[in-house]
Amino acid sequence: MPRIDASSVAEHVRIQTGRILDAAAALFRERGYRNTDLEDIAAAVGLARNSLYRYYPGKDRILLACVRREMVPFVAELTALTARYPDPMERLGAWLDAQVDLATGPAHATLEMMAEVRQAGPELVRELGDLHELPNAVIEATVKELLRGSRRDVRTVVALVAGLVESTARHVLRGGNKAAAKREARRALAGLFS
For residues 139 and 161, what is the distance between their CA atoms, to the nearest angstrom? Predict the structure, then answer.
């Protein structure tokens, strides 16, 4: 029986799960999703490949857990914007900045991997899409507030804003100046509501 270096089995599982997700996230960023296999993740953690199955049924579940771990605190941060920015345009600008920062930061590997992940099973693609919809759901109330009294379609405007964030992040990831890109994105965002 393997030795457990924790005060309880639950604590051991939490520690091992964190180590697996840390190693997997680093490998996904470095090699990409397709070029990383369970053997690589297990080796990085110091486990046998079959030991990973105690924690996750497959590589897709590990990727999903990595993304979920990043998204939960980020969505909480976005939710807090409502209290910090009573003005909906300021809130929307802060939301845009936070989204671009997350998408271009070192912890967010999935933006660059989405093309290869789309070739994975449909269930994984759907679940990753659902996680990436959480930030849009958070900001939908702000868009509704800004469009109140108009006949514009809120979901379409939210999709346009999300597309603006994604294209801004891709531009920055390709070497664009982040500050300049955010300024231009905020101008485009203001244009959506003028």
Answer: 10
